[in-house]
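ok, trying the design again with the full structure, not the truncated one.
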C-alpha cells in the first residue's frame, strides 16, 4: 500500500472517530442505506496515552499491552510505548536515536509487559499500526506500599480526545485529586476545566485556558482550581484547541485511592457495572449538564434479578449541581451493578460510583464510572493467576458472551469459555478462563455472541497485609473497526 492510500485511510479513520460513523441506532432505512454505502474495516493505526503513574519513591508500576487476534487486518504491524517527551515527529525521530521504546509488542495474541519503580516514571504514549492496531489495549497498574493513596491504582491507557466528564472527583481537604492532562501532538493544547459541586459551579479563574505544551503531561491539583471545598465534585474537561488524554488520580489519607476513569457520554440511562460483593460502602455521584433537572430510577442488577435498593428508589439531580447519595453496603454480600433510568422524561446525565472495601484502618477505594456497552469486543490486560474477577451485566434481555484468555506474558496457551448472562442480572465470574501453563500476566477478551447488550468491568484484587488492595477497569467497546464509506474504499483501491 503506498503513502497516498495510507494517508487516505488515516483520514477516513479519523473522520469516523469525529463524526461517529460507528454509532449505533437509526431507522431501518438508514441502516439499509448504510450497509450498501459503508463497510466495517479494521483500524490501521491507534494511539493511547498513559499518565504519570506516581510521584512516590515507594511506588511500583507495571504495564501490560495486548492486541486480540482478528480477521481482515494486515499480517504485519508494530506497537510500542515511548515516554511522551520522546514521541517526536518522524523527521526528528531519525535524528534522536535515544527514543528507544519502553515496551514493544510484535504480534497479535501475544501480550507483553514492562515495569517501572520510583518517582521518575514518565507519562507514556503508545502507537500501534497494522495488525496490532485493532483493539490494542494497555493497562497501567501501580501499587503503593504506604502513604496517602496507599494501595493499588490501575487504569486503562486512553486515546486522546477533546471532551471528558469525571463525576466522583473531590476538592475536600482529606482528598488529593489530580487531573493529568497529556498532549501527544506537535502543537500546544489549550484546556478548560470546570468543577461543579452540590450548589453549582465552583471553578476558579485558574481553570480557564490551561496550557499543555507539545509532547508533555501536566498534573493539576483540583483544589487549586476551585473557589471552595466540596466532598463530591463533577469535573468537565474541554480542549478548546488541540487534544489531550485526561485522567484523574485520587488519593485519600484514610481510604487509599485509585484512578477515576472518565464517565460514558451524558445519556438518559446509564449502567455502572461490577460492584464487588464485599463492598462495605458505595457512593453514587451524578450530574446533569443540561438545562433540566433529572429524576432517576435507581436499580441494582443482582445475580438473581433487578431489585430496588430500600430507601434509595430514586435520585433527583438538579441542573448544574452534583448530586451524591451513600448507598452503604447495597450489594448485601452479592455482586451487583447499578442501573439508572429516567422516571419520566429523558434528561442526559453522567455518573460514577466510589466503592470501598475493608473496615477500620484497612480500607481501600476504587471507582466505577457509567460505562458504554461492550459492543463488538472488549479487552482488559494485566490479569493475574489469582485476583481477577470479571463482572458482566445484561440490563435488558439475556445475552451469550465468549470470554477468551490470551497466552501469558511469559508463556501459556489461550483458553475460551462461553457464558450466559440472564436479563436484568449481573454475572460475577470469580474464576475467569486462564491460559494453560500460564506464566506472567494475561488478557481477557469479551465478545457478545447473541442476545441483548452487555456491560462489564474487571476487578483486580491483590491483598497485602490485611489491606484489600484492588482496582476496577470498565470494559467498553475496543473500537477496533470503523465504518468506511464506499467512495473512500473505492478511491483507496484506485490509489494502489
Amino acid at each position: 500500500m503506498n503513502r497516498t492510500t495510507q494517508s487516505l485511510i488515516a483520514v477516513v479513520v479519523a473522520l469516523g472517530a469525529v463524526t461517529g460513523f460507528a454509532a449505533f441506532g437509526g431507522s431501518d432505512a438508514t441502516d439499509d442505506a448504510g450497509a450498501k454505502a459503508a463497510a466495517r474495516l479494521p483500524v490501521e493505526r491507534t494511539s493511547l496515552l498513559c499518565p504519570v503513574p506516581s510521584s512516590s519513591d515507594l511506588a511500583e508500576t507495571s504495564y501490560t499491552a495486548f492486541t486480540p487476534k482478528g480477521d481482515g487486518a494486515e499480517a504485519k504491524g508494530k506497537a510500542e510505548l515511548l515516554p511522551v517527551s520522546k514521541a517526536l515527529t518522524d523527521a526528528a525521530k531519525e535524528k534522536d536515536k535515544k527514543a528507544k521504546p519502553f515496551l514493544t509488542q510484535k504480534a497479535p495474541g501475544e501480550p507483553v509487559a514492562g515495569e517501572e519503580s520510583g518517582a521518575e516514571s514518565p507519562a507514556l504514549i503508545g502507537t500501534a499500526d497494522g495488525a496490532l492496531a485493532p483493539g490494542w489495549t494497555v493497562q497501567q497498574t501501580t501499587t503503593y506500599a504506604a502513604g496517602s493513596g496507599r494501595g493499588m491504582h490501575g487504569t486503562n491507557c486512553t486515546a486522546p480526545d477533546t471532551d471528558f466528564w469525571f463525576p466522583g472527583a473531590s476538592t475536600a481537604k482529606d482528598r488529593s485529586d489530580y487531573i493529568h492532562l497529556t498532549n501527544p501532538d506537535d502543537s500546544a493544547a489549550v484546556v478548560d476545566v470546570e468543577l461543579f459541586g452540590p450548589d453549582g459551579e465552583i471553578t476558579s479563574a485558574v481553570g480557564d485556558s490551561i496550557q499543555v505544551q507539545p509532547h508533555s503531561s501536566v498534573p493539576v491539583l483540583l483544589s487549586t482550581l476551585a473557589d471552595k471545598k466540596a466532598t463530591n465534585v463533577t469535573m468537565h474537561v474541554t480542549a478548546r484547541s488541540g487534544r489531550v488524554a485526561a485522567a484523574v488520580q485520587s488519593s485519600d489519607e484514610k481510604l487509599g485511592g485509585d484512578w477515576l476513569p472518565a464517565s460514558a457520554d451524558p445519556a438518559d440511562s446509564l449502567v455502572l457495572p461490577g460492584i464487588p460483593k464485599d463492598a462495605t460502602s458505595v457512593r453514587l455521584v451524578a450530574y446533569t449538564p443540561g438545562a433540566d433537572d433529572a429524576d432517576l430510577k435507581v436499580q441494582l442488577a443482582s445475580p438473581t434479578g433487578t431489585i430496588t435498593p430500600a430507601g434509595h428508589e430514586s435520585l433527583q439531580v438538579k441542573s448544574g449541581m452534583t448530586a451524591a447519595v451513600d448507598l452503604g453496603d447495597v450489594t448485601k454480600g452479592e455482586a451487583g451493578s447499578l442501573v439508572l433510568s429516567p422516571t419520566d422524561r429523558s434528561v442526559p446525565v453522567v455518573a460514577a460510583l466510589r466503592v470501598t472495601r475493608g473496615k477500620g484502618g484497612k480500607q481501600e477505594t476504587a471507582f466505577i464510572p457509567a460505562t458504554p456497552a461492550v459492543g463488538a469486543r472488549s479487552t482488559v490486560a494485566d490479569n493475574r493467576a489469582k485476583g481477577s474477577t470479571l463482572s458482566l451485566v445484561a440490563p435488558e434481555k439475556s445475552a451469550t458472551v465468549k470470554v477468551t484468555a490470551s497466552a501469558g506474558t511469559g508463556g501459556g496457551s489461550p483458553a475460551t469459555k462461553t457464558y450466559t448472562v440472564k436479563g436484568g442480572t449481573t454475572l460475577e465470574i470469580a474464576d475467569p478462563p486462564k491460559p494453560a501453563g500460564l506464566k506472567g500476566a494475561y488478557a481477557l477478551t469479551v465478545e457478545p455472541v447473541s442476545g441483548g447488550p452487555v456491560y462489564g468491568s474487571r476487578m483486580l484484587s491483590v491483598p497485602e497485609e490485611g489491606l484489600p488492595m484492588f482496582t476496577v477497569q470498565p470494559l467498553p467497546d475496543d473500537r477496533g473497526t470503523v465504518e468506511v464509506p464506499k467512495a473512500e474504499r473505492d478511491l483507496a483501491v484506485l490509489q494502489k
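Keeping the full-length input from now on. DSSP finds four helices and 38 strands in the chain.
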